[in-house]
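> call design_seq(struct)
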């Protein structure tokens, strides 16, 4: 069965995300856009994932819990988990590897914890946009240890991407999949170092009007978190 997806979305907990990106409003916009499977991936935290998954389920969507992890090399990696429980354990680990910097809301934006009904629960005081001390080579095994799957984000961009930082794709890092941005040039995937690599394309939306509609799809035997994880890993039957 074909399901339309967007697996890279930010909420108001990301400092660069709009305050309008509440879990409930984000889920509602995804439903209006005709999406079937979505994932919340705030910077270095899964703090709003439970609220988003609840709001998405109420609107008939399958939601995965996730995070856009920033490694010590300033490489962004999307880490996805089949449910909020796995994601929250991973998030607690990542939290221990963030630097002790305070967020400046005037410069970076607010970082709001919300419930599934758009009530503000609190504000994160640490700067979530900072780099962790987790190296990119650790991430695939680390995400798998917590029941998840990881792939480098927007590799065609010049900043905060694996190719932007390393220059070439390193297959020894054991990422079988990578993300391309929505505006990636068509000939980009013909790079010799990307041969044999699988790709997904997501919106990386930080604002409600950046959520695009039913454009990218995956074929799954059933719409479950486990089926999505298997599809990402290339192990689906």
């Amino acid at each position: 069965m074909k399901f339309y997806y967007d697996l890279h979305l930010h909420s108001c907990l990301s400092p660069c995300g709009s305050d309008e990106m509440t879990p409930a409003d984000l889920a509602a916009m995804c439903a209006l856009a005709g999406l079937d499977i979505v994932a919340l991936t705030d910077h270095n935290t899964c703090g709003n994932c439970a609220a988003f998954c609840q709001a998405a389920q109420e609107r008939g969507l399958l939601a995965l819990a996730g995070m856009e992890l920033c490694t010590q090399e300033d490489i962004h990696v999307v880490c996805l988990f089949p449910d909020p429980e796995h994601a929250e354990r991973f998030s607690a680990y990542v939290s221990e590897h963030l630097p002790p910097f305070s967020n400046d809301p005037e410069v970076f934006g607010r970082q709001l914890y919300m419930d599934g009904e758009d009530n503000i629960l609190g504000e994160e005081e640490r700067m979530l946009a900072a780099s962790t001390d987790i190296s990119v080579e650790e991430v695939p095994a680390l995400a798998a240890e917590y029941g998840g799957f990881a792939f480098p984000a927007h590799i065609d961009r010049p900043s905060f991407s694996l190719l932007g930082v390393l220059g070439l794709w390193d297959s020894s890092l054991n990422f079988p999949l990578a993300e391309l941005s929505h505006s990636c040039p068509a000939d980009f995937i013909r790079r010799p170092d990307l041969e044999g690599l699988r790709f997904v394309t997501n919106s990386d939306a930080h604002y409600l009007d950046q959520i695009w509609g039913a454009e990218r799809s995956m074929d799954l035997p059933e719409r479950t978190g486990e089926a999505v994880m298997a599809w990402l890993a290339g192990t689906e039957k």
